[in-house]
Amino acid sequence: MPSWLTIRVRQGSSTRPFPPEEGLPESFRGAPVFDPALCPDGCRACAQACPTAAVRPASHQQPASLDLGRCLFCLECSEACPEEALRFTPDHRMASRTRQGLLRPGPGGVEALDEASRRLFGRSLRLRHVSAGDCSACAAELQALGNVVFDLSRFGVQFVASPRHADGIVVTGPVTRNMETALRKTYDAVPSPRLVIATGACAISGGPFAGSPHALDGAEAVVPVDLFIPGCPPHPWTILDGLLGLLGRIEKGERR
C-alpha cells in the first residue's frame, strides 16, 4: 500500500494560479455587460424584475444604470430583457474602491492604495472578519480563501482572531442594529492606519434586507469603507482580485 507521502506526490499541487488561467465556468454569474442603448423602453422591464432595485430605468435626469452593490446576481433582470441589453459573464473582476465605481455602465476596476500605504500593507496584511448579521454565505467564501485551492496566505494576507492584531476588517452582512456597536468597537480596536472591506451585497447596500428597520443597509453607515466587493456571495477569486488590486499587486502583473 503506498504511503501518504507517495499519494500526495501523485496528486501534485492543488493550488490554482492567480489570476486564474482557466477562467470560471460559463455558468458563473460574474461581471455584467450592460448596454442600455439596446433597450427601447429605458430598461423598465429589467427594473421591474429586479428584487433589490439594482437596475434603475432611464429618466429625464439620468440614463439607465445597474448598481452592482445592490445586485444579487439572480438573473431576473437579464431574463426579463428581450433585447439582451443586460447579460452576465464569467468575469470575476468586479471590486471597486468607491461606491460610485460599482455602477454600470462604467469603467470599473480597483484603484490601488497610495504608495505609502502599499509599502505598509503590501506584503503583510492581517484582517479581522466581522459577521454583521450575514447568512454565512459570504463568510463561507472568505473561509474558502484559506483552503489549498486558493491559498490566500501565499500573498501575505491572513485572517486573525483579534482586531488589535489586524490591519483592517472585512465586513459581511447588512449590519443589523444588534451588531452596530460590535462593528464600531472592532473598528476602533484596529490600530491606525486601518482598512475596511465591505464584502457582498448586504455589506455594501443591505442587499435583500435594505430598508429593514432592523438593519443599517451596509457597513458604510457605521465605518468608512476602503474597498467594495460585490456578489451574493462573491466568488473567492472576486475577493482575491479586490484585495490584490487594493494592494497594487495586480498592476505588477504577478501570477502565483
Radius of gyration: 19 Å
Question: Given the C-alpha coordinates, what overall shape results?
Answer: globular
Distance between the termini: 34 Å
Mean pLDDT: 91
Question: What about the largest sheet?
Answer: 5 strands, parallel
Strand segment tally: 10
Strand order of the largest sheet: 7-6-8-9-10
User: Counting H and I runs of at least 4 residues, what is the number of helices?
Assistant: 8
> H/E series, N to C?
HEHEEHEEHEHEEHEHEH
Percent of residues in helices? 10-25%
The proportion of residues in beta strands is 5-15%
Write down the oligomeric state: single chain
Q: From the helix content, strand content and strand pairing, which structural class follows? A: alpha/beta
The parts where pLDDT drops under 50 for at least 5 residues are none
SSE arrangement:
Blueprint: H1 4-11, E1 32-34, H2 44-49, E2 55-56, E3 65-67, H3 76-80, E4 86-88, E5 103-104, H4 115-121, E6 125-131, H5 137-144, E7 157-159, E8 168-172, H6 177-189, E9 195-199, H7 201-205, E10 227-229, H8 236-246
Describe this structure in words.
This protein has a five-stranded parallel sheet with strand order 7-6-8-9-10. It has a three-stranded antiparallel sheet with strand order 2-3-5. The model has no long low-confidence stretch (mean pLDDT 91). Strand 8, helix 6 and strand 9 form a beta-alpha-beta unit. The chain has 256 residues and is an alpha/beta fold. The protein is built from eight helices and ten strands. Helix content is 25%, strand content 14%.
